[in-house]
Every structure is written in C-alpha cells, then in structure tokens.
Amino acid sequence: MIELINVSKKFQDVQALREVTSAINEGEVFGLVGTNGSGKSTLLRMIAGVLKQDTGEILIDGIPVWDNPAAKADVCFIPDLSYFPVNATPVTMTSIWKTIYPDFQEKRFLELLSKIGMDKKRRINAFSKGMKKQLSLFLGICSGTKYLLCDETFDGLDPVVRQAVKGLLASEILDREFVPVIASHNLREMEDICDHVGLLHHGKLLLSSALDDMKFNMQKVQVVLRDPMMEEELKSRLDVILSEKRGSILTIVARGSYQNVMDIIERMNPIFAENLPLTLEEIFITETEVAGYDVRSIHS
Fold first, then answer.
1. Which positions of the chain have pLDDT values less than 70?
2. Does residue 196 share a domain with residue 258?
3. Among candidates 54, 291, 289, 290, which has minimal Cα distance to 300?
4. Predicted pLDDT at 299
5. Which of 180, 210, 240 is the last residue before a domain boundary?
6. Which end of the chain is less crowded, N or C, counting CB atoms within 10 A of the terminal residue's CB?
7. Which domain holds residue 263?
C-alpha cells in the first residue's frame, strides 16, 4: 500500500500540492487525473522518492520513501518524457535496467519488443515519440517492481498498442503483487482500466474513490415538470451539484444513489424523467466546476 498523509510541496511561490491524503491499495489500478498544473507529475515524483515533500508523509508498505533505498527498490517511475543515453538501443537498455532492478525480466522484455516488431538494435534516438513511450512502458512492466508509476501512460500510443498495454497491466495484477498508478489526461482510457481514481485540482485532492462508487453516488437526470415553478423546490430536495435549463428540459447533476434521486423526482409527478449515464470525464468536469474551474467560461 502507498499512503499519502497530509502531503504538501511548494516551489518558491507556487504551491504545487496542498495537504494531499489518500491510499493506493493493492490489487487495483489507481488513476490520477487533474487539470493542467494540478500537481500530478509532482506527486508521482514524490511517491518515487525523486522529490521530497515539504510536509506530511509518504509511505511505501509502511516505510517512508524519501532517502530510503529499501522503499524505492519496489517502485519504478516512468516519466512523461523518458531519458535514454545517446546511441542507446533497446538491447543496451536491458543491461542498464538490470543494474537498477535486480528482478528485471530481460527475456520477457525482448519477447514484447518482438511481438510489436520493434528493432531491438536500433538507436532509440531515432524512434518516434510513440515508440519511445512503448519502450518505456515495456521496461517498466518488466522491471519486476511491485509499484509502477506512469505519467501520461497512453500519450502517443496507437489504439492497438494502448489495448495491448492495458491487457499487460491486467495480467500483471493477476500474476503477482503489482500496483499500477497512472496519471493521464485521457479520461476515456482511464475509465476503461482504473478501479480507483484520485482527482487533483490546484494541488488539492478533490476526491479519491472507487470509480464504481463515484458513478453510484452521482446521478445525471433530465426532467420536465408540469409546473416550471416547482423546479426550485425539486432542486432544494436534491443535493444538487450543477443544474442547467434548456427549453422545458431541466438537467441536474446531484449526489445520491439512483433510487434516492429518482424517488424524489417521481414525487414531483414529472411529465418526463430520465437518468443519463455519467462518464469519468463528466464527473471530472463537474467536480472541477464546483471547485471553481469553469471551462465553459473560456469560450463564453
């Protein structure tokens, strides 16, 4: 388990993270999402022990990670832009990786390269961005560490490779103790693979919850009432996050279970009421708007 306890970090006059508290449990894929500059990359670097938090604690299986080789040995961090030595090839990277990660699975790594047709003797500097990302991910998956931290994991990958990587992560979880932590702007991809999601905004963790629980406890409904004057009464009975009126249709996003929200609406004897599925992207936008980040105001 990775434990974050009141973690804060400041760079000069920029408060990158503010008292972040969460837990990343075993047996799940943890997704870290957030607005630009929200602190995702900073948080991953602190979990990896690359940066030190100003206040708070970061524990890897109960051990403080900063300046602690025993804790760091179980963590592999793949940054958004990976560095490769000049003239390095995938083959030469295996010798480098083995010195850092004793359990590195060289045979499996080379097999993965072969499956996607990547030339193991070609200079990495000649690779495309997507190929470098694939190589980094394969190195991370084959590192043998318990925790794999990935910054913008799917950026630059084509759909076929993205699907293959998601399958690899899932099989690793089934085969051994393995916990992927994925930071990404690609919410559609995150929704497909993540069990638990943490939402960062301006350095604060707005929520951290199982994805299924998020969807269970937040409803999006469209309603047409017989008397438009009753709309305010309906909203007062619900735990409304956002509401919007277009023509006669009132769209509401409210906290609560499907049954509770629909029961309240049905008591108002509506002409029409429909529950709409919420995507992770809609949850993300809704929560950040509540926190004061209204993207719609940019183009209004």
1. 156, 290-300
2. no
3. 289
4. 39
5. 210
6. C
7. 217-298
Total tally of structural domains belonging to the chain: 2
The CA distance from 162 to 186, in Å, is: 11
Q: Which residue, of 210, 229, 256, is where some domain finishes?
A: 210
For residues 178 and 229, membership in a common domain is answered with: no
- Provide the pLDDT for residue 296: 46
The helix (run of H) or strand (run of E) holding residue 49 is none
State how far the Cα of 20 lies from the Cα of 150, in Å rounded to an integer.
Answer: 19
Clarify whether residues 53 and 82 are in a common domain.
yes
Q: What burial letters (b/e) apply to 194-220, b meaning 16+ CB within 10 Å?
A: bebbbbbbbbbbbebbebeebbebbbb
Q: How many residues does the chain have?
A: 300
> Residue 281's domain is classified under what CATH number?
3.30.70.100
Q: What is the pLDDT of residue 290?
A: 65
Amino acid type, 51:
L
Q: Which two tokens stand for residue 102?
A: 């004793």
If one counts every other C-beta atom within 10 angstroms of the C-beta of residue 247, the result is 6
Alpha helices in the chain (DSSP H): 40-47, 69-72, 90-100, 106-115, 129-141, 159-175, 187-193, 211-216, 231-237, 258-266, 280-290
pLDDT of residue 298: 36
CB of 25 closer than 8 Å to CB of 1: yes
**Sign of CA pseudo-dihedral 133, 134, 139, 144:** positive
Retrieve residue 73's tokens. 């040995």
55 and 28 belong to one structural domain: yes
pLDDT score for 292: 56
